[in-house]
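Local shape tokens:
==================
===
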Amino acid sequence: MTHIAAKSTAAKPIAVKLEQDIRDRIKRLAEVRQRSTHWLMREAIQQYVEREERCEAFRQDGIQAWEAYRRTGLHVTLEEADAWLITLEDGHDVEPPECHV
């Protein structure tokens, strides 16, 4: 019989050392928001991680685009991109310009 351990999603404590000034500011903000300091710190960390993950995904997309350009040479000019964006701004849903070498 095979035993597969279930992935635990339970929150586990972690210690973070903070300067007293930051601790006081978190406490004041938590009181104003009528939340616990614990909730406030968890929310801040979650938002930070999500934001940084989006930034990293954007960075990786840029790296992949650069590598694709280096391999193929396919691109659009600034003028072509600007003209397309102006058309979109005017409310016309048009396809982007064709890439070329």
Observations:
- The radius of gyration is 24 Å.
- The chain has a mean pLDDT of 94.
- The longest helix spans residues 37-72.
- The chain has three helices and no strands.
